[in-house]
């Protein structure tokens, strides 16, 4: 058998094997309904990943390692840049948030969006992101468009000025959670690849 033929056969076997391990459900809408209920009960979680942000208007970009811990409504977010360039730290809840930039003193405000915009020139909707990273629409914004994949998980979402595309999921403790997320707005392009999930 020629090498090219062997290669094609191996690809077919791999795809078939994957399909057997993750069959397409008869009712994706029911899977989505049940999946939402499960995720909404997850109050405490941690993730580690690679985050890149491109500010379109300012023509600036940055990338680094993201650590996000969410505990009973309190979040600790660290965005660490390579080669010892420092890190951005965001800590807060629904009432108060503190931002610390490299080589600067911490600054406190009541809104993470306004705080980020005033200090960095751009803003991320942190209160919505803590839903989006789980693969859920946020109840804080109206949903303009919601598209599920063949397995009943969120694939595309439009809320506010943001388009969120879920490119890949990973099975964690019997649940499928996002592994690769693209988020786009008129001001920002955000890419998040989640390498590690922990939740309870």
From TrEMBL:
For the keyword Glycoprotein, the answer is: no
Query: One Pfam family for this entry, by name?
Result: LolB
An annotated GO BP: lipoprotein localization to outer membrane
Membrane protein topology class:
Lipid-anchor
The family database entries (Gene3D superfamilies) matched by this protein are listed as: Lipoprotein localisation LolA/LolB/LppX (2.50.20.10)
Quote the subcellular location field of this record.
Answer: Cell outer membrane
Q: Which domain of life is it from?
A: Bacteria
What are the entry keywords?
A: Cell outer membrane, Chaperone, Lipoprotein, Membrane, Palmitate, Protein transport, Signal, Transport
Task: Name where it mostly resides.
Answer: membrane
Q: Give the UniProt entry's GO cellular component terms.
A: cell outer membrane
> What residue range is the signal peptide?
none
Stated family:
Belongs to the LolB family.
What subunit structure does UniProt give?
Answer: Monomer.
Q: What HAMAP family would the database entry show? A: LolB
Report the protein's function.
Answer: Plays a critical role in the incorporation of lipoproteins in the outer membrane after they are released by the LolA protein.
Q: What is this protein called?
A: Outer-membrane lipoprotein LolB
What organism does the record attribute this protein to? Candidatus Nitrosacidococcus tergens
């Amino acid at each position: 058998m020629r090498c090219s033929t062997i290669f094609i056969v191996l690809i077919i076997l791999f795809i078939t094997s994957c399909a057997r391990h993750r069959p397409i459900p008869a009712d994706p809408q029911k899977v989505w309904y049940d999946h939402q209920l499960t995720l909404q009960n997850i109050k405490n979680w941690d993730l580690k990943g690679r985050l890149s942000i491109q500010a379109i208007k300012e023509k600036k970009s940055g990338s680094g390692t993201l650590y996000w811990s969410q505990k009973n409504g309190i979040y600790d977010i660290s965005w660490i840049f390579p080669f010892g360039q420092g890190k951005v730290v965001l800590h807060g809840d629904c009432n108060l948030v503190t931002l610390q930039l490299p080589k600067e003193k911490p600054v406190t405000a009541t809104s993470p969006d306004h705080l980020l915009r005033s200090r960095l020139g751009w803003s991320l909707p942190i209160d919505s992101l803590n839903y989006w990273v789980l693969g859920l629409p946020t109840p804080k914004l109206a949903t303009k468009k919601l598209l599920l994949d063949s397995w009943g998980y969120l694939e595309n979402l439009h809320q506010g000025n943001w388009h969120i595309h879920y490119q890949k999921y990973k099975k964690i403790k019997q649940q499928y959670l996002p592994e690769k997320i693209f988020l786009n707005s008129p001001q920002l392009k955000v890419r998040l690849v989640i390498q590690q999930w922990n939740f309870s």
